[in-house]
Amino acid sequence: MKIALGVTGGVAAYKAAELVRRLQQEKLDVQVVMTRSAQEFITPLTFAALTGKKVITEMFGAGGAEPANVESAIEHIAVAQRIDLLLVAPATADILAHFAQGIARDFLSTLYLATKAPVVVAPAMNVNMWEHPATQENLQKLRARGVHVVDPDEGYLACGMTGAGRLAATDAIVEKVRAVLGLRRDLEGQTIVITAGPTREDLDPVRFLTNRSSGKMGYALAEAAARRGAHVVLISGPTDLPIPESVDWVPVRSTEEMRAAVRERASDANVVIMAAAVADYRPTAAQKQKLKRGDGGLTLELEPTPDILAELGREPVRQNGRRVLVGFAAETDHLAENARDKLARKGADVIVANDVTQEGAGFDTDTNIVTMFLRDGRELPLPKLTKFEVANRILDQVLEGQKR
Ligand code: C5P
Fold first, then answer.
1. Which pLDDT belongs to residue 180?
2. CATH number of domain containing 127
3. Of 221, 347, 394, 395, which has the fewest Cβ atoms less than 10 A away?
């Protein structure tokens, strides 16, 4: 498949070189198009060397000393008909404005108007430019037109400011391209049950026991699996997250409710992923009336909750290999021992373990640093990745396990 990669003038332009490589690894034929200002940041030669193709830098000719040439304009415009997708990364506020307004001021903006291929933009700019109503309105317009936007990441920006505006990770851009091109529907036909978020165990009508889980990991899994074509049942404890598109969303509150939902939905699932931080203990008896303050201390009596994952792990259906079970282990110490112990004790096929004390891992972050522990004894440590990327790696592992 052929794609045109538009590179515009932002500091992140250098990242487009790596992007070309990754797109080529996906067997995509890449034609690079550069705006004039992009060439201030990186030379066309870099992209020509990577792609083995002349980079399009001008509407009427190869640029530089070459005279204007109508043949090359026609030839270039033919690119619009040939490509399967137009990707712009990094996309400046300026190119988004031109796209939104339909102003064909140079080759790239002309290509945008001339092509019927899907368009993906990965904006990158200073945080104030990103947040400016003009930029946001332009993006809204483009989205409404069906343009796919790979939102920028938050972080330290070249201008010295911190905030949203950093070009999304290369993997996230490639994922979007693959998804838009429909290249990765490898979970089609599978039903995947995913649990996410915390549970709440009531003490009395106004108080409950819970934990710091944000649900981000489980929601990322749900989104990734749905994009790859799975039928996703997302059983979620209380979270503030938007419901991912095209998933079957089942809200629950307590461990008992989560258990009932999992048991009901897991029976015809090919894969069950327990990413929820399920309470291990609950008050022995929730009080009907609000507990009153007294002078002395208060001792709560807690009882263990049913271990949903272990219950599934014991079911004979697992034995005929019809269902892959994935559990999580959030640990503060002895990560490997605890993970291996859970693998055996819960009858899981994979335990995804993370040390929640590590920076960039665990609760309420957008990244995670995990190691996958497999039944066959293998340990697969992953670098720090976004939760979406971690989700895709887990799903890759599930697929690999099903093939064996
Ligand atoms: O034993 P621990 O709670 O650390 O195990 C974590 C894994 O077990 C997670 O996958 C979690 O969703 C699952 N779990 C469960 N039911 C419980 C407690 C944990 O399914 N009651």
1. 77
2. 3.40.50.1950
3. 347
